[in-house]
Design a protein that fits this description.
The chain is an alpha/beta fold and 224 residues long. The protein has eleven helices and six strands. The chain has one domain (2-223). A four-stranded mixed sheet has the order 2-4-6-5. It has a two-stranded antiparallel ribbon with strand order 1-3. The longest helix is centred in the C-terminal third of the chain and has 19 residues, at 193-211. The protein is globular.
Length: 224
Amino acid sequence: MNFGKTNKFTAYTTLALCIIVIAFAVFTCPNFLEAKGLNEQFDEGIRPSISIRAAQPQEEFAFIWYYLQNMPFFIKNGYSITLPDHERFEKLAKIPPDNMNTKKEETYDFFDQHIYNKVDYKNGLSALADINDKLISVFERFETLNKQWGFKVFNHYEVVLTLYGVGGHFDAKNGQVFLKTTKDGKFVLRDPFYVIVHEMVHIGIDDNIVNRFRLNHWEKERVV
């Protein structure tokens, strides 16, 4: 069950202004980010690693609930949202977010008992079986950016497969990338490598650029 449609990026003028500000701060003031306490270093003695797994039922439901509660934002911004293909969730998607919480526990029980099936992630995991080496190849560039201006690098990244939401999502605090797949092992892009790296870049700039310069949603997407 999908909601919304694909959005074309806008706000080019505002974005250009943001990029100019960022470039000025970084390239004319080499110690700018470090002086502000933003040049966070990872453990340089450890080469970053990646693990890939399927979402557990509690995680998957929390992810679904997040999208249900933020459905107005995603629809407004033109996203296509995948939810469980069941009338219960179709009805929930039409309820105002403030009226949803009373249904959370019973909805989780239903999801856990009747919808979640770990077998549904098998093909997605198989499709990513050989992607680790390709992903690890980007870390050298990440490490360089970390040393130059504080691009955030984790010692370990976790890619979590989900059947719901948008194509990709990230958790900047824990170094997690949530990648949407299908039961037949397909992704929003033919090569999921680009989606994963896109979300890793989001993680890397979330503190030092996005929050620092208060970029809005589409400005952030255009920078990445």
